[in-house]
Amino acid sequence: MATRTVARKILGFFVTVFIVQTGAGLAGYTPSGDFVALSAAILTTGAIVAGASPMAALGETGL
Fold first, then answer.
1. What's the rounded Cα separation, in Å, for the pair 22 and 25?
2. What is the CA radius of gyration of the chain?
3. What pLDDT, on the 0 to 100 scale, is given for residue 54?
4. Cβ contacts of residue 13 below 8 Å, gap of 6+?
5. Are 31 and 11 in contact (CB under 8 A)?
6. pLDDT for res 15
7. Mean pLDDT value across residues 4-24
8. Where are the strands (E) in 1-63, listed by range?
9. Predicted confidence (pLDDT) per residue in 17-50, tens digit
10. Helix-strand-coil percent breakdown of the chain, rounded to 5?
């Protein structure tokens, strides 16, 4: 169970990296990888501290 949670948080971080990088590209910025990773880490940490996981909706079926 705990391994699943850790894996989801890691996967959520990579999804957040993709979102940050895509958003920067749409805005016309070309940030280096370290700034993309830093901003994704800050966003993911904020979501985890707030009690949400970027991938939380994947575990819920709604049924």
1. 5
2. 13
3. 57
4. 40, 41, 44, 54
5. no
6. 85
7. 83
8. none
9. 888 888 888 888 887 888 888 888 888 788 777 7
10. 75, 0, 25
